[in-house]
Amino acid sequence: MAVPPKFAGHKLLFAPPPSTTPSVPNTTHTLEFYADYCCPFSAKMFRTLTTAVFPLVRANPAWAPQLAVVFRQHVQPWHPSSTLMHEAALAVLRLAPDRFWAFSGALFEEQNSFFDVSVVYEARNQTYRRLAKVAAKAGVDEEQVYNLLEVGDKPAQDGSLNIGNEVTNDLKVIIKMNRLVGVHVSPTVVFDGVVQDTSSGWTVDQWKEWLTKNVV
Fold this sequence. Notes:
By secondary structure, this protein is α+β, with helices and mostly antiparallel strands. It has one domain: Glutaredoxin (3-Layer(aba) Sandwich). Helix content is 45%, strand content 11%. The chain is built from eight helices and five strands. It is globular. The mean pLDDT is 95. InterPro entries: Thioredoxin-like_sf.
């Protein structure tokens, strides 16, 4: 599935892709990582990928130019905070796309503070404020992030009350994209358009074996 230009920060490249010829355009393998910020298993796989697997890819001249990774934000609605966490990521993506992966790492590290018990007595805008502070730790302006997330307390000009915030439409886009491919479980890995039998419990050696088999 394509990556819209406004979501370019979702895509991670490890090296410039091989040059193309007029008759045979270059294509790389694509690993799509469907993850929910409120899911402990997504956090576990993210840490393994970013701290151990991706460095292996960068260091391997046979893999680095042949693989692209796409972070697919996958809201899991039975976690009420999930929507808010993904909205914060979309705000970061708009303001500082080069900080998206850093913010994702910071948010996964603090995900416990956004679980059900942690937010049960917290107003929505209070949660947004804390999410904006996480963005600040990743080098993104806290106030700019919060301004995109805050929900006002006045009806819209047409009297509607479901007014959303400045990233609501972007959230709708990623929800539509994920529904089109029917992904349910988080995390899910899709490689070149096919769902893979991977696990958040995989070791680095298991990922290395998988990469050796598939990135050819």
